[in-house]
């Protein structure tokens, strides 16, 4: 894995045509690995138009490779279509679709078993932060989420405080630094590997510069600002 990863989470936006237009326009960054996470309906078009040096992945997958799971996406098929990555446990999956640490752990195992690189997403809610439980929550999400992971294979973690996602309320550099240092210590003990640790939550071309210089920030997971090719390219270039 490259030392810096900048990922676009398009969520439930963009048609295949929109995706193609973006990919023709997007200039891959020099230093960071760019990764695009389209909705599954765009996967085929993205796999056809993904620029050299850029990777893509699924926003979610099931923990079984195939079978009677109506409406789910197979990690094995994602891999066959050319995906390199899959997001696991994004806060929208956790809060809107009732995903748990346990399903995250199973999905990470399945993804790695299919040769995909899982990106485990975690982060506290505002209430949890206000109650002084930020560290306890993200430690639990990290340990439980990685319970079945193979640390000899690549994986990444994205710290995304729920209150900063899609709100325009970015975490301060102090808050990001504190959480990343905390997660880094646990990750080092747990895995013995250099796991990329990304920040996500209202990252923009305006705030990415100072966030990229925070120690232990190895990249960004970007939602809203990743929908425009030039804005996402500007964010990706912050690690150059
Ligand atoms: P945002 O989303 O950049 O729009 O806050 C980030 C995410 O959900 O990954």
Structure commentary:
The protein is α/β, with parallel strands linked by helices. The protein is 38% helix and 15% strand. Strands 1-2-3-4-5-6-7-8 form an 8-stranded parallel barrel, surrounded by 5 helices. Strand 2, helix 2 and strand 3 form a beta-alpha-beta unit. The model has no long low-confidence stretch (mean pLDDT 97). It binds 2-phosphoglycolic acid. 2-phosphoglycolic acid binds next to strand 8.
Describe the protein's topology.
Elements: E1 5-9, H1 16-25, E2 33-37, H2 43-49, E3 55-58, H3 75-80, E4 85-88, H4 91-96, H5 101-113, E5 117-122, H6 126-130, H7 134-145, E6 156-159, H8 173-191, E7 197-200, H9 208-212, E8 219-222, H10 229-236
Parallel strand pairs: 1-2, 1-8, 2-3, 3-4, 4-5, 5-6, 6-7, 7-8
The structure holds 2-phosphoglycolic acid.
2-phosphoglycolic acid (PGA) binds next to β8.
């Amino acid at each position: 894995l490259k030392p810096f990863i900048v990922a676009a989470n398009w969520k439930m936006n963009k048609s295949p045509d929109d995706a193609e237009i973006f990919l023709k326009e997007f200039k891959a960054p020099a230093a960071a690995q760019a990764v695009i996470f389209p909705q599954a309906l765009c996967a085929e078009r993205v796999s056809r138009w993904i620029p050299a040096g850029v990777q893509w992945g699924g926003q979610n997958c099931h923990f079984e490779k195939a079978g009677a799971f109506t409406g789910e996406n197979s990690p094995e098929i994602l891999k066959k279509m050319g995906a390199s990555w899959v997001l696991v446990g994004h806060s929208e999956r956790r809060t809107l679709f009732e995903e748990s640490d346990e399903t995250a752990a199973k999905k990470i195992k399945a993804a790695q078993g299919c040769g995909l690189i899982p990106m485990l997403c975690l982060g506290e809610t505002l209430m949890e932060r206000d109650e002084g439980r930020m560290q306890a929550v993200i430690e639990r999400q990290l340990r439980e989420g990685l319970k079945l992971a193979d640390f000899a294979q690549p994986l990444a973690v994205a710290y995304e405080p729920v209150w900063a996602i899609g709100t325009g309320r970015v975490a301060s550099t102090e808050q990001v630094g504190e959480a990343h240092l905390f997660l880094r210590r646990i990750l080092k003990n747990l895995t013995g590997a250099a796991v990329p640790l990304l920040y996500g939550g209202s990252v923009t071309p305006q705030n990415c510069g100072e966030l990229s210089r925070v120690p232990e920030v190895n990249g960004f997971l970007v939602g809203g600002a990743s929908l425009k090719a030039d804005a996402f390219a500007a964010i990706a270039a912050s690690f150059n």
